[in-house]
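Provenance

Sequences were taken from public entries as deposited. Structures were produced by running a predictor on each sequence independently, with no templates supplied. The record for medium-chain acyl-CoA ligase from Aptenodytes patagonicus is shown for reference.
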Amino acid sequence: GKKSKNPALWWVDGAGEEVRWSFEELGVLSRKVANVLSDACGLQRGDRVILILPRIPEWWLMNVACMRTGTVLIPGTQQLTAKDILHRLQKSKAKCIITDDSVAPAVDLVGAECQSLKFKLLVSEGHREGWLNFKDLL
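Predicted structure for medium-chain acyl-CoA ligase:
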């Protein structure tokens, strides 16, 4: 079929790089992300997920994937301190946190104090000990 002139997602970064996904592409990718959340992370309907990412395409994929899996998305800003993250993890009893290299060190500082936290998902090209790599799993 023909590609729609109205993409479901059209994202452009500061350097002019862009990502355009049709509704079909967004559907396929969000199903893959939902599988990562339910299979690799073992998340089930009602489980809480904290998402701390800049507004990159993966942020939108995680939003749609959480809707698909029935998990409760708790968005957060990258300006949160380790203390802020600890508070949110403890109060929400989140089982999973999804973030990038800029926030992962703060999560590592407080993660041991959160008994409910079972999975840490890193959106990065690199790897970090104790974290699942989102791009590898996708």
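Residues 23-40 form the longest helix (18 residues).
The helical segments are 23-40, 57-69, 82-92, 104-110, 134-137.
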